[in-house]
Amino acid sequence: MEKLMIRGGKELRGTVQISGAKNSAVALVPAALLAESEVVLDNLPHLSDVAVYSEILQELGASVTWNGDVMRIDPSRLQSKPMPNGKVKLLRASYYLMGAMLGRFGEATIGLPGGCNFEPRPIDQHIKGFEALGATVTNDHGSIRISAKQLRGAKIYLDVVSVGATINIMLAASRAKGYTTIENAAKEPEIIDVATLLNAMGAKIKGAGTETIRIEGVDSLHGCRHSIIPDRIQAGTYMIMAAATRGDVLIDNVIPKHLEAMTAKLIEMGVQVEELDESIRIVGMPEYEAVDVKALVYPGFPTDLQSPMTSLLTQASGVSILTDYVYNNRFKHVPELIRMGANIRVEGRSAVIEGGSLNAAAVRAADLRAGAALVVAGLTVKEGVTEIAGVEYIDRGYDHLVDNLQRLGAEVWRETVS
Ligand SMILES: CC(=O)N[C@H]1[C@@H](OP(=O)(O)OP(=O)(O)OC[C@H]2O[C@@H](n3ccc(=O)[nH]c3=O)[C@H](O)[C@@H]2O)O[C@H](CO)[C@@H](O)[C@@H]1O
Ligand SMILES: C=C(OP(=O)(O)O)C(=O)O
């Protein structure tokens, strides 16, 4: 088993390059399966989810080569095969294979997705979308079978604003007959990124990034080249780390517009934030004010930054209240932060955080962003070594985390323990 070790108390200083976005990559790789010739993805992050996807695609008959941050996917020999639990259970975003295979072959048989299950994460809106497009969906003890003789465009109103359902419906509807409208669609930048790729492949999608997306189905899609947008969650996490260690860090290769909610909250706390064209500079201050944070769908404060933000708020003077309106109970980081001396209580969907210093402890990441929260916390600790287990979760979302932090002056390393 590997652990992440942190001897904290160092101010982070320097420049960090942000990789392509995980939540785009895990949708763009399966989206490529809809093409009949090669798709090239640039700025692909080095993450375990992407590596698992690459293996799944090859098992399905696609040819995949991955060099540096470029992946070439040739799906011309793709076969329609059942995709049982094994690999699809390793990542949440395997649900995109449903929409992609349904669009390509009119059928998909696949196990339920896995990934970070910090609470039950239903996919009823994905299923509702496929059924509206004319597919029959059955669930045989967790094996989902989706099939349609002919997908037909439909008007679909999502009951909840769902990133996954919006993208999955876009994937399948790109190959349906006629027009599909998704109302109450999610507006995250990753949705625009997927629509941009699909349109470059010959799809006809309008309105991505707004609450109404219109898709005119086409008979076939072709290969293309596409560069993945920067990871706003990774960038936001480094912004938090820079502020938490009272450092001075330039976060490079970002789209500052995607980080506005994060930037505004840091400024409200008293952090110095400088927005440049493709980078953001964070200069930490000795004292921060407590603030209230509401995690919402985009363009609100992202739920995926809620956990690391909890750790930063332990560094503010006074009481902050952080409420997550996307998930009911995404607080697996809280008991671990309490082990590190934090004064936090969870009340319903809110965490009430009283500022104070943290101490080193042996803790465990129960999910990806809970892990990020523990890294932020460990970086602030002035004495001793924080040991974080559950590194495999952190590897789902942070490309070259240890190298990046070491370059910024942190004392961080991985250790294999028995
Ligand atoms: C791979 C990926 O992109 N993951 C992101 C995606 O996850 P994911 O696509 O799974 O999240 P959704 O946007 O679908 O979920 C939002 C909310 O809707 C609920 N819901 C969702 C679908 C559904 O069919 N029924 C339903 O009730 C969920 O339980 C949750 O409470 O968006 C989340 C919300 O920004 C992020 O935390 C994840 O990092
Ligand atoms: C919850 C997350 O990812 P996933 O949906 O892939 O589990 C995340 O990125 O914080």
From TrEMBL:
Question: Keywords on this record?
Answer: Cell cycle, Cell division, Cell shape, Cell wall biogenesis/degradation, Cytoplasm, Peptidoglycan synthesis, Pyruvate, Transferase
Residues bound to phosphoenolpyruvate: K22, N23
List, alphabetically, the InterPro entries matched: Enolpyruvate_Tfrase_dom (IPR001986), Enolpyruvate_Tfrase_sf (IPR036968), MurA_subfamily (IPR050068), RNA3'P_cycl/enolpyr_Trfase_a/b (IPR013792), UDP_GlcNAc_COvinyl_MurA (IPR005750)
Transmembrane portions of the chain? none
UniProt enzyme class: transferase
Q: Which reaction is the catalytic activity of this chain?
A: phosphoenolpyruvate + UDP-N-acetyl-alpha-D-glucosamine = UDP-N-acetyl-3-O-(1-carboxyvinyl)-alpha-D-glucosamine + phosphate
What are the Enolpyruvate transferase domain coordinates in residue numbering? 7-405
Q: Where in the cell is it found?
A: Cytoplasm
An example Gene Ontology molecular-function term = UDP-N-acetylglucosamine 1-carboxyvinyltransferase activity
Q: Where is the active site?
A: C116
| Keyword Nucleotidyltransferase recorded | no
Major location category of this protein: cytoplasm
Q: Which family does it belong to?
A: Belongs to the EPSP synthase family. MurA subfamily.
Function of the protein: Cell wall formation. Adds enolpyruvyl to UDP-N-acetylglucosamine.
Q: How is this protein named in the record? A: UDP-N-acetylglucosamine 1-carboxyvinyltransferase
